[in-house]
Write a structure and sequence with these properties.
YefM-like fold; alpha+beta
C-alpha cells in the first residue's frame, strides 16, 4: 500500500513564528490536512506529518529496501553462477571455439534467452 503525499507546493503553510506561538492551530491543521509545510523566511524548511503517516512511510521504505536487496541478491547469485561456469577447466577452450567461429552459427539454432 503506497502512501499518497501531496506536492510540497500544495501543502498548507505555517511560518516558524506561528508554529511557536500557535501550536494548537498547527496541530489542528496537521490533523485536518495530514501534513503542514513549515516555512522560515518564505522557504519551506520542514514538513510536519501525523505519526501514523510517518510510520507508514517508514514501513514502505523498509519494504522497498528489502525488495531491492532481494533483487540484488538474485543478481549476485546469477553472477556467481556465470563466473563459476567461466572458471571451469573447459571454459578457455569453449571461448576459443567461440572466437574461432567468427560469427558463424554452425548447425545449432541460436537461443533468444532462457524463456525460449
Amino acid at each position: 500500500m503506497t502512501t499518497e503525499l501531496r506536492q510540497l507546493s500544495e501543502l498548507p503553510r505555517q511560518n516558524a513564528t506561528q508554529v511557536k506561538n500557535q501550536w494548537g492551530e498547527v496541530v489542528r491543521l496537521v490533523r485536518q490536512n495530514g501534513s503542514v509545510a513549515i516555512t522560515n523566511h518564505s522557504t519551506v524548511e520542514m514538513v510536519l506529518l501525523q505519526a501514523s503517516t510517518y510510520e507508514q512511510l517508514a514501513q514502505e521504505l523498509h519494504e522497498l529496501k528489502a525488495q531491492k536487496q532481494s533483487q540484488l541478491d538474485e543478481l549476485a547469485q546469477r553472477f556467481e553462477q556465470r563466473l563459476a561456469g567461466l572458471q571451469q577447466p573447459q571454459a578457455p577452450a569453449r571461448v576459443q571455439a567461440l572466437f574461432g567461429a567468427k560469427g558463424k552459427l554452425g548447425a545449432r539454432r541460436p537461443k533468444a534467452g532462457a524463456a525460449f
